[in-house]
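Lab manual, section 2.4: Encoding a predicted structure.

Procedure: take the sequence of the chain (51 residues), apply the prediction step described in section 2.3, and record the output as structure tokens. A sample record is shown.
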Amino acid sequence: MSFNRGKCKTYLLGCERTRRAALIDPLRENAARYLAAAAYHGVRLDYVIDT
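Recorded output:
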């Protein structure tokens, strides 16, 4: 799943088997949105990666 706003692109990558996920290049002001998306997809956010 990707979240696109302006020049910043944020990605939520999750594993169907382990239900673990990583969030890549998030924006702080969208934290609630990312957590809601992870919950909706049934994954646990374990990693946040800023590139």
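Check your result against the sample. Residues 3 and 20 are 18 Å apart (CA to CA).
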